[in-house]
C-alpha cells in the first residue's frame, strides 16, 4: 500500500551475480544493478556506485547491496540526517553467507532480511531486540494498520522486553504468529480499534485503516471534526472518496494532502452516503454527517488502491541535455512515480532505467500531437503519465503540444487530469555554461527548422534579431532534409555582425562524446554543424579570452553601451 518500488539489487562484480539471481527469484520485480564494465548480464548498468545508491535511496527504493556493510553505510551517511525517504537497506555478503539489515527498521528491513536469508538458507543478522524476541516489529504493523504513537510505542516495547506480559484487544491477525508473552490479566495491552481513544501508559494503540469519508466538499478541519464527533480516530481514516466531477477540486486535494490519505473517485448517482457505500462492500457502520459528507466504517482495513480510481496525472518533463547530474530532482521523482512514459525513443532511453512495472511508449519524433493525445487518454484512466523531452519541455518540445491537445479537447476527463510541466536545462543554457556566459546579456532563441513555420518568417526574425544586436541561440540548425537553411541564416546575420563575432558550437553537450568549439562568424560554415549541435552567436559586445589549461572563455558583459563606472 505504501507504493514503494521493488527492491534494487546492487552488485559491483560478476562474482555476486549468482547470489543476486537467487535473491531476484524471491523478488521477481527487483532489478539487478551492475557496475558498468565489471558486470555482464545485469538488468541495469550504472557508472558510479555512490551516486546510484544515493539516488535509489532518495527514491525510496529498498536497497539490497552485495558488498561490505561499511561501504553502504559510508555511501548513505550524508543522507541519513535529511528527512524524507527511509527505505529498507541491507548488505548481503557476495557469496550469500550473510544478510545484514542496516536501515529502515520501520520500513520492514528485518522482514526483508528474514525473507532473503530464507532464500539463501542462512540466518539473518537481526539485531533489533523486540524483533528477535517476538519475531515481529510491533512498531511496524502491516499495511492497513497504523501505529498510534512511535515514542509511546518504544517505551511499551522496552517494558515488554523487560519481562512483562501483554494482552491483545481487538483484531490483530498478524500477531497470531508472533511469540508474544500473552496473558489475559496482563497490565500491558495492545489495543486495535478505530475508536478515538486516549492512550494510557500501558497501551500500544494500533488503528486499523478501515474508515472512508465520502464527500462533495469539505476541508481537512471539517473532516477531523466530523470524525471526532463520531468518536472515530483520524488515524483510522483510509481514504477520501469524491465524485468524479470533483476531480480537479483544489479543496478536496488539499484536504487529502493535509490528512495524508489518498483521494479516490467514483461516479456518484445519489447521496454522498450512497457514494461512500459504493466503495465498501459490507460496512460495519455508516453516518451521514450532512449533505456533503458521510463516514463509512468497514469491517476490515480498506485498500485505497482498490477503491474507485485516482485522479490521473500527466507531467511533461525536461531531462536536461543528457547528463544525470543536470536533471532536476523533481524530474527524477516524477520518473520514479510514473506508470507510463511516452516520448521519442532516444529520450525515453535517456530517462531510464525503468522498473518492470513501468510501461514505455516509444514513438517517432514527429508524432507530437498523437503522443500528446495518447498521454491524456492514459492519464484520464487514473494513471501517472510522463511525457519526456530533452532539455526543457517548453523549448521546441512537448509542453506546447500537450497544451494544444488539451485546448482542442472538450473531454472533461482530459481537463480533470492533474497536469504539470517540469523544467529542464535547455541545450542553449547547458552549452552557454560550458563556454562561459555568451548569453550573459539579452539574447534571442530561435529554431531554424521550417517544418512548422514558413522560412520567410525565420528570415524576418533573424534579420530583426541580428539588427537588434541580440546574441543568438539556434536550435535545430540543420538536418538532412534542411541542408541550405543554415547557410542562408548566417548570411543574414553577417549583414549586421562583423566576421570576428564569437560563435560557440556545442555538440552532444552533457552526453557521451560531447564537444565544444569556439570559432567566429567569419569562419563558421554549415558543414561544422549538425542536428545535434547548438549554435550560439555573440552580439557586438561578446568577448573571448584564453583559459588557463587550454581553450577559451566566451562571455557577453552585463552592461551595454558605456561601461558603468568608467
Ligand atoms: N527541448 C530541447 C530542444 C529540442 S530542439 C532543449 O530545451 O534543449 C532539438 C535541438 O536542440 C537540436 O537540433 C540541437 O540544436 C539542440 N540540442 C538538444 N540537445 C542538445 C545537446 N545535448 N547538445 C547540443 N545541442 C542540443
TrEMBL record:
Q: Which domain of life is it from?
A: Bacteria
Q: Which UniProt keywords apply?
A: Cobalamin biosynthesis, Methyltransferase, S-adenosyl-L-methionine, Transferase
Cobalamin synthesis G N-terminal domain spans which residues? 52-130
Q: A single Pfam family, by name? A: TP_methylase
Q: Name one GO molecular function term.
A: methyltransferase activity
The record ties this protein, via InterPro entries, to: 4pyrrol_Mease (IPR000878), 4pyrrol_Methylase_sf (IPR035996), 4pyrrole_Mease_sub1 (IPR014777), 4pyrrole_Mease_sub2 (IPR014776), CbiG_N (IPR021744), Cbl_synth_CobJ/CibH_dom (IPR006363), GbiG_N_sf (IPR038029), Precorrin_MeTrfase (IPR051810)
- Residue span(s) of domain Tetrapyrrole methylase: 314-524
Q: Name one GO biological process term.
A: cobalamin biosynthetic process
Q: In which pathway does it act?
A: Cofactor biosynthesis; adenosylcobalamin biosynthesis
What NCBIfam families has UniProt attached to this entry? cobJ_cbiH
The name this protein goes by in its record: Precorrin-3B C(17)-methyltransferase
Q: Can you name the source organism?
A: Pseudomonas prosekii
Lineage summary: Bacteria, Pseudomonadati, Pseudomonadota, Gammaproteobacteria, Pseudomonadales
Source gene? cobJ
Amino acid at each position: 500500500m505504501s507504493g514503494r518500488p521493488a527492491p534494487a539489487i546492487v552488485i559491483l562484480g560478476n562474482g555476486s551475480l549468482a547470489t543476486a539471481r537467487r535473491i531476484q527469484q524471491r523478488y521477481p520485480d527487483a532489478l539487478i544493478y551492475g557496475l558498468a564494465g565489471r558486470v555482464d548480464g545485469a538488468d541495469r548498468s550504472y557508472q558510479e556506485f555512490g551516486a546510484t545508491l544515493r539516488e535509489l535511496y532518495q527514491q525510496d527504493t529498498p536497497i539490497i547491496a552485495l558488498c561490505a556493510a561499511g561501504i553502504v553505510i559510508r555511501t548513505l551517511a550524508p543522507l541519513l540526517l535529511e528527512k524524507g525517504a527511509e527505505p529498507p537497506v541491507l548488505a548481503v555478503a557476495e557469496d550469500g553467507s550473510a544478510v545484514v539489515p542496516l536501515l529502515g527498521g520501520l520500513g520492514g528491513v528485518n522482514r526483508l532480511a528474514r525473507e532473503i536469508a530464507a532464500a539463501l538458507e542462512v540466518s539473518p543478522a537481526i539485531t533489533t531486540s523486540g524483533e528477535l524476541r517476538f519475531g515481529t516489529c510491533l512498531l511496524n504493523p502491516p499495511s492497513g494498520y497504523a501505529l498510534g504513537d512511535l515514542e509511546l510505542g518504544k517505551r511499551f516495547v522496552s517494558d515488554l522486553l523487560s519481562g512483562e506480559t501483554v494482552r491483545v484487544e481487538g483484531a490483530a491477525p498478524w500477531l497470531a504468529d508472533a511469540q508474544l508473552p500473552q496473558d489475559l490479566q496482563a497490565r500491558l495491552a495492545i489495543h486495535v480499534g478505530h475508536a478515538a481513544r486516549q492512550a494510557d501508559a500501558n497501551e500500544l494503540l494500533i488503528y486499523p485503516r478501515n474508515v472512508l469519508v465520502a464527500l462533495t466538499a469539505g476541508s481537512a478541519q471539517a473532516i477531523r471534526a466530523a470524525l471526532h464527533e463520531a468518536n472515530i480516530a483520524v488515524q483510522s481514516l483510509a481514504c477520501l472518496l469524491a465524485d468524479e466531477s470533483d476531480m480537479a477540486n483544489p479543496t478536496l486535494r488539499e484536504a487529502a494532502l493535509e490528512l495524508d490519505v489518498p483521494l479516490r473517485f467514483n461516479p456518484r448517482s445519489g447521496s454522498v452516503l450512497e457514494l461512500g457505500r459504493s466503495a465498501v462492500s459490507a460496512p460495519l457502520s455508516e453516518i451521514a454527517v450532512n449533505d456533503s459528507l458521510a463516514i463509512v466504517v468497514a469491517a476490515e482495513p480498506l485498500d485505497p488502491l482498490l477503491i474507485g480510481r485516482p485522479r490521473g496525472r500527466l507531467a511533461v518533463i525536461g531531462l536536461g541535455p543528457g547528463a544525470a547530474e543536470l536533471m532536476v530532482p523533481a524530474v527524477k521523482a516524477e520518473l520514479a512515480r510514473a506508470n507510463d512514459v511516452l516520448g521519442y525513443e532516444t529520450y525515453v532511453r535517456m530517462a531510464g532505467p525503468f522498473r518492470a512495472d513501468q510501461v514505455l511508449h516509444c514513438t517517432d519524433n514527429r508524432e507530437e500531437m498523437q503522443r500528446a493525445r495518447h498521454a491524456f487518454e492514459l492519464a484520464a484512466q487514473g494513471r501517472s503519465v510522463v511525457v519526456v523531452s530533452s532539455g526543457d519541455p517548453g523549448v521546441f518540445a512537448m509542453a506546447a503540444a500537450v497544451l494544444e491537445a488539451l485546448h482542442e479537447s472538450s473531454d472533461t476527463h482530459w481537463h480533470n487530469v492533474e497536469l504539470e510541466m517540469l523544467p529542464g536545462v535547455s541545450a542553449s543554457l547547458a552549452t552557454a555554461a560550458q563556454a562561459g556566459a555568451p548569453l550573459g546579456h539579452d539574447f534571442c532563441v530561435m529554431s531554424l527548422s521550417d517544418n512548422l513555420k514558413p522560412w520567410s518568417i525565420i528570415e524576418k526574425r533573424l534579420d530583426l534579431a541580428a539588427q537588434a544586436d541580440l546574441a543568438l541561440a539556434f536550435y535545430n540548425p540543420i538536418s538532412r532534409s534542411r541542408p541550405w537553411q543554415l547557410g542562408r541564416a548566417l548570411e543574414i546575420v553577417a549583414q549586421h555582425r562583423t566576421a570576428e563575432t564569437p560563435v560557440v558550437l556545442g555538440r552532444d553537450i552533457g552526453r557521451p562524446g560531447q564537444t565544444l568549439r569556439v570559432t567566429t562568424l567569419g569562419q563558421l560554415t554549415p558543414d561544422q554543424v549538425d542536428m545535434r549541435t547548438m549554435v550560439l552567436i555573440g552580439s557586438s559586445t561578446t568577448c573571448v579570452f584564453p583559459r588557463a589549461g587550454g581553450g577559451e572563455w566566451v562571455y557577453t558583459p552585463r552592461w551595454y553601451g558605456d561601461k558603468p563606472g568608467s
